[in-house]
Amino acid sequence: MVCAVLTFIGWLVAGPSPALAHAIVAAVAVLIIACPCALGLATPTALLVGTGRGAQLGLLIKGPQVLESTRRVDTIVLDKTGTVTTGRMTLQAVHPAHDADDVLRIAGALESASEHPIATAIADAARARFGALPAVGDFASTAGLGVTGVVEGHAVVVGRAALLAEWALRPDETLTADMDAAQAAGRTPVLVAWDGQVRGVLVVGDAVKDTSAEAITQLRGLGLHPVLLTGDNHRAATAVAARVGIDEVIADVRPEQKVAAISDLQAQGRVVAMVGDGVNDAAALAQADLGLAMGTGADVAIEASDITLVRGDLRAAADGIRLSRRTLRIIKGNLFWAFAYNVVLIPVAAFGLLSPLVAAAAMAFSSVFVVTNSLRLRSFRPAPDPADTATRATSEPGPASVGSDRARVLKEGPS
Q1: CA 288 to CA 76: how far, in whole Å?
Q2: Residue 8: in which H helix or E strand, if any?
Q3: Residue 398 class from Cβ within 10 Å (0-12 exposed, 13-18 middle, 19+ buried)?
Q4: The domain 90-205 belongs to what CATH superfamily?
Q5: Fewest C-beta in 10 Å: which of 28, 153, 183, 355?
């Protein structure tokens, strides 16, 4: 409006006769061409299309600030259980000091009072074998370590070696060897003790998701450094990390220490994204510069995150980051062309070289261009599955079928 007023005054004072007519035409042209429609559409249209396309793909993006975070992220921290692995823990073996049935039955009874995935696996195995389990009294849970309680009059402790050490309980050499073998195989050993004696070791395993290794490859392709963060023992965590291609492992971390681990990485100058699924991950997701929660996980983790991966597939994390970055590029492109259009054409209109009719058409074109450019996000596709690519490669049509395929395309149109 200021430019239009100055243009009007300039033509009125110095313009040729009739000065008033030239002044009005030039001022109106400036006013039309400077209309900020394109600027107003540049960001919201791209956000609308980008978040809508993400929702179609199972990626729920909470807000525009997420886009800036994805641009700067250079490190991605991955929770192990339920994120890199399936989270469906199963009992793999029972190593008793004396009676295997007693070890599983009493441990299963105590663990039935806990909601932890490892506890659930032990309790389910015990129920499958013995049916109803004994009642539990004085139950207590120590986050990241294990549980204690009273079963059939016995003071029972089930959990990690650190918890048993607090009760001055240590396994013998045989059980220690069983623990080491389980950890070397990437599994989790759980010690069982009652009445002041370690009674056995339960080995719980969790399968790595089939898509995790490919997801790590995709994340590296985006320039991100993956880090595995887990409360599991270091040997088991390292075995899982090696299977999916992760070099850096932070293990033996209690739930309350996960936030500190994220903060330490940020203190090193890294911009950190965190992917998790459990209640124990919620605080770390909130602390991270970008939080991504598995949609198959706990509600509190989803609430604390910036992006929710509805599919529960780690590859969706890479797709979410790619979509966010692409949306940000579209927004920047929209803003550039909207500004460039004004910068170039306002002086042209001010000098009387642009009629109001042409200015109106140019203004409308700029708005259409911004919307059309944003709609390009509708073509965003997840990264192709290598397995599907290999299947398509083995089923490529031979020379005899090329002609019929071309005929089909001409008749039906491209798919």
Answers
A1: 9
A2: helix 2-14
A3: exposed
A4: Calcium-transporting ATPase, cytoplasmic domain N (3.40.1110.10)
A5: 153
Dist CA 362 CA 364 (whole Å): 5
| Dihedral, CA of residue 290, residue 291, residue 294 and residue 300, to nearest 10 | -160
Could you read off the pLDDT of 253-265 as tens digits, one per residue? 887 789 999 999 9
- Domain-by-domain residue ranges, the chain? 2-44+324-379, 59-86+209-310, 90-205
- Among 186, 249, 201, CA closest to 93: 201
Which residue has tokens 């370690």? Answer: 198
Mean pLDDT value of segment 238-267: 90
**Residue 288's closest CA among 302, 313, 312, 306?**
306
What amino acid positions are annotated as catalytic residues? 79
Candidates 121, 367, 302, 323; CA nearest to 222 is 323
The answer to whether the beta carbons of residues 318 and 218 sit under 8 Å apart is yes
Does the pLDDT of residue 54 top 80, yes or no? Answer: yes
pTM value > 0.85: no
CA separation, residue 159 to residues 107, 108, 228 (Å):
10, 12, 22
Give the ranges where 227-355 is alpha helix by DSSP (H).
234-244, 255-267, 282-287, 299-304, 315-350
Question: How far is 164 from 340, CA to CA, in rounded Å?
Answer: 69
**Amino acid letter for position 374:** S
**Cβ-based burial of 384 (10 A; exposed 0-12, middle 13-18, buried ≥19):** exposed
Domain range 59-86+209-310, CATH architecture: 3-Layer(aba) Sandwich (3.40)
| Contact (CB, 8 A) for 146 and 163 | yes
- Residue 221 vs residues 72, 284, 364: alpha-carbon distances, Å: 15, 24, 39
| Nearest one of 379, 300, 346, 288 to 52, comparing CA atoms | 379
Sheet of 59-61: strand order equals 59-61, 307-309, 290-294, 272-276, 75-79, 225-229, 248-250
29-43: per-residue pLDDT in tens? 777 777 777 777 888
User: Within 10 A of 340 (CB to CB), how many other CB atoms are there?
Assistant: 11
Nearest by Cα to 73 from 262, 256, 276: 262
Tell me the sheet residues that pair with 165.
none
